[in-house]
């Protein structure tokens, strides 16, 4: 992955998650002809990594915390769309579990980073 620091866990995981979301969107739109929910998933799921990148390049600690807070919200929204896709039978339980586990991990990771950054700020 060009431009991704291997030692930055949240950067690596959010990018890999975005790739999975894009591939899931491609699958849902091609195989299931589902465009509305999957488009929402695509938007929020790829936004996580984009906000992480912006936070890493932020001009201040406050900017970093703000961007990671947005990434956290986008991760929560992504988890919502994944649950909705499962509960409306667009995703099988196996497909759902595979990617939902990654979404939950990103939520936990982003939440922990925010808490640490806020403590350091005070």
Show the helix and strand layout:
Blueprint: H1 9-31, H2 36-56, H3 61-87, H4 93-121
Helix pairs in contact: 1-2, 1-4, 2-3, 3-4
Describe this structure in words.
With about 120 residues, the protein is mostly helical. It has one domain: de novo design (two linked rop proteins). Helices cover about 80% and strands about 0% of the residues. It contains four helices and no strands. It has helices at about 10-30, 35-55, 60-85, 95-120. The radius of gyration is 15 Å and the shape is elongated. The N and C termini lie far apart (about 35 Å). The model has no long low-confidence stretch (mean pLDDT about 95).
Q: In short, what is this structure?
A:
By secondary structure, the protein is mainly alpha-helical. About 80% of the residues lie in helices and about 0% in strands. The termini are far apart.
Low-confidence stretches: none
CATH superfamily: 23S rRNA-intervening sequence
Instruction: Summarize model confidence as the mean pLDDT.
Output: 93
Tell me the strand percentage band: under 5%
Q: What is the helix fraction of residues, given as a range?
A: over 70%
Name given to the CATH architecture? Up-down Bundle
Number of domains: 1
Biggest sheet, in brief? none
CATH class category name? Mainly Alpha
In whole angstroms, the N-to-C terminal distance is 35 Å
Q: Give the SSE string.
A: HHHH
The radius of gyration over CA amounts to 15 Å
Overall geometry comes to elongated
CATH topology: de novo design (two linked rop proteins)
């Amino acid at each position: 992955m060009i431009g991704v620091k291997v030692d930055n866990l949240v950067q690596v995981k959010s990018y890999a998650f975005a790739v999975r979301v894009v591939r899931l969107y491609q699958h849902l739109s091609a195989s299931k002809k589902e465009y509305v929910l999957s488009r929402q998933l695509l938007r929020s799921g790829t936004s996580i990594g984009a906000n992480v990148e912006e936070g890493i390049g932020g001009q201040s600690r406050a900017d970093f915390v703000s961007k990671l807070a947005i990434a956290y919200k986008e991760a929560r929204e992504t988890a919502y769309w994944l649950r909705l896709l499962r509960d409306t039978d667009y995703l099988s339980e196996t497909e759902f579990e595979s990617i939902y586990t990654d979404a939950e991990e990103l939520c936990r990771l982003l939440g922990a980073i925010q808490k640490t950054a806020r403590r350091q700020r005070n």
